[in-house]
Structures are given as structure tokens and as C-alpha cells.
Amino acid sequence: MPLTWFDLIEVWTFVWLCCFLAVIFVTTVKSCRTSGLPWMHRIYGDENEDLCHDVQFEGTHEPKEISPWSPRALVSPLADGVSTTEVWIKRRSSDLRSIAGSTIRAPKYWKHYRGTHLPQYKGFHLAQVTPEVTKAVKALVEKTWREDAVGIGIDAEKLRHRKIVVHNVKRIENPRLYNRYVTQRQMFCYDAADEGFFRSPDPPIATSALNLPVLNKLLVKEINEHFLFHGTKPERVDAILNTGLDFRMSGQGMFGRGIYFAENSTKADQYTDWIWQRGKEEGKHDTKTMFLVRATLGRLFVGPDDGTARSFTRPPCTVQGCTRFDCNHVERFDAVIGGTSKHKMFREYVIYDRSQAYPEYVITYSRIY
Fold first, then answer.
1. Mean per-residue pLDDT, 58-69
2. Which of 90, 314, 363, 365 is the most buried (most CB within 10 A)?
């Protein structure tokens, strides 16, 4: 049957419509690559990538000499007088808003939970991690270990071992804790996007400074999110696996009643047993447990090392001239860093809100004498 003029018009209309849509698509893709729209960034899906299943900045526009938390102007500005740093900050702020507005879901690599309705699940599962993650966690433990500091200090009394050896690393899959942590982290992302990136400690936190890609790529550095160690007694491990870290179960530390973290495995190891038990285990195969925790530190307050912060139950306010934790000011710091004075052996990091920490990995190890 021969084609009519009407059929030819239909065919040409269809062809032109397809071409028009193709041009729109190509133009949109180029525009997104230029402006840094969220959907153009990767969404990670396996264990060696983004744990939170959030949008992650690819870094194609990031000036290599600028760290995310301490940007500075480059020598060569753009043609319109705007520095490349300012452009990158604007793009990264857009990324943070995308993370903050993303749907919270279980990571694709989790073995026991799926979907977005995480609070409906109770309990937890321990999953074996990939060899790459195991290697990275072991590297954190080994490279932050300080043999010269073993046995020094009140908490290290009677410790005589030279090092520790990691036997096993497992990932904690706890839907309710995960949902609580990511929800809080999103609030920090909103704040950082609106108010500016949070300044990181100087020198950098040891666990992040090692720059292990398989772990560091999971973190949002602009909100001071870091992997930190937390040591605990054997009888408290199950409670942490089930309900997370709880400052209500801790004693009154140097910086009040909070959840304490260490950037050195040596420091965390001091809290994995009771002092009265030490000395009896030398030569025995006695395993210990510490956690590698994701912690969002946000705005850090440098705490005094003279004992005056023992009464803290929350971070002090940010109002200039007021460092009280019990004042009525609204704006507050998010965490406290202690041990910054020269006579201190280790730095400590303290949070007072349980939702700022997620116990990511549980590490089983033993001491070597």
C-alpha cells in the first residue's frame, strides 16, 4: 500500500520530535555537568564506597591545594574576578544540600536489610566485610598505634604490651541506629551549606589524615565527619551493638558526661578492660573489643585541660565571651576536643548527643607482649 502525504507528514513529525528531544537532553546534561546538579554525581552501591548511600561529590572541580574545611583564594582568578575556590565552595554547598535532602535507605551492600523504612526493623546483624575494608581498618589500628605511650597515664596503668593484632573486623548493620545517625548528619549538612564549612582540627585527626580511600570516601568532611576509635569493656559490647553508644552509661570524664572517642588505637585500647585485671593475661590468648565509629563532630570547642570542664553535660555556647554549657543561649558547639595542650599524650573527642555517632565496625584483637 503506497504512502500518502499524510503518512509522510507523520513520519517527518516523529523524526523531528526525536531530534528535538535529543538536543534538549544533550543540552541538559552539559548544563548539569557545568552547574554540578545532584543527579550528575555518583550514588555508591557497594561496601567500598558510600556507606550512607548519599550523593557524593566527584571532585572534578575541586582545587587540589584546597582542603574542604579551610578554603583559600587561588592565585589565578577566573576571568570575571571570581576565584575558582568560590566557585568550588558554591558547588560543594549544593552537594551538601543534596545529601541533606536525600532519602535515607539501607546501603545496597547490607546483607540483612533493604529499602527505606529502616525504623521498622529491630535488632542488628554482624556482617563480614570485604578484604579491602579489613585491610583499611587494620591499617588504621596499626598506623595510629603509639608504642611509646603504652602504660603512661592513669587509664593505662599496668599495661605492658608492645602492640595489638587485629583478628577480625565486622560491619554492624543496625537499621534504627543507622537511620538516627543519618538523619542527624543531614541536619549538619544543611547547617554547613548555609553557614559555611566547619573547621577541622589542626593538626588533622589521625584517622582521616591517613587518607585511606576505602574509608575516607564515606565521610562528609565539611561537617567534620570522621572515623574514630571507641574502646569498651566486654560486658558492654552487646548493649552498644543493640542500642548504640550511650553517654548515660559512662562516668564523669575530663569533659563531663559524654561519649569519648580517640584518634589513636592506643588510647582506645586503655578502656577495653579493667585495671585490676591487668597483669594476669600476659602470655594468654585473651581477645579485646573496640569499635571504629563514624562520628559527626560539627563545630568543635577546644576544651580546657585543667579539669574545669568536668561538669559539662553538653557543649558550651558559641556566643563570644560565654563558654558555659548551662547558659540559655541557643547556638552551641557540637562537640568538644580535649588534650590539645602540650603535656597531654592524646587528643580526645567528646559528643553529648547519641545521634552523632554510628558504631560502624567492631574490631576483635589481642595484645602482644
1. 32
2. 363
User: What pTM was estimated for this model as a whole?
Assistant: 0.77
Backbone angles phi, psi at 219, to 5 degrees: -100, 150
Q: What is the rounded CA–CA span in Å between residue 366 and residue 243? A: 25
Cα-Cα-Cα-Cα dihedral of 269, 271, 274, 277, to 10°?
A: 0
In tens, the pLDDT along 71-105 reads 322 233 333 444 455 655 777 888 889 889 888 88
Bridge partners, residue 149, by sequence? none
Q: Which tens digits make up the pLDDT trace of 153-177?
A: 889 999 999 999 999 999 999 999 9
The identity of residue 369, as a single letter, is: Y
Spatial CB neighbours of 197, under 8 Å, sequence gap ≥ 6: 68, 69, 71, 89, 92, 222, 223
Alpha-carbon distance 109 to 23, whole Å? 37
pLDDT value at 228 more than 50: yes
pLDDT digits (tens, 9 = 90+) for 261-280: 999 999 999 999 999 888 77
Grid cell listed for 36:
554540578
Task: Return d(Cα 300, Cα 330) in angstroms, integer.
Answer: 16
Could you give the CA distance from residue 116 to residue 127 in angstroms, rounded to a whole number? Answer: 20
The answer to whether the beta carbons of residues 292 and 227 sit under 8 Å apart is yes
Chain centroid, CA 179 distance in Å: 14
Return phi, psi of residue 262, to 5°: -130, 150
Q: How far are the Cα atoms of 4, 5, 11, 360 from residue 8, in angstroms, in the given order? A: 6, 5, 5, 63
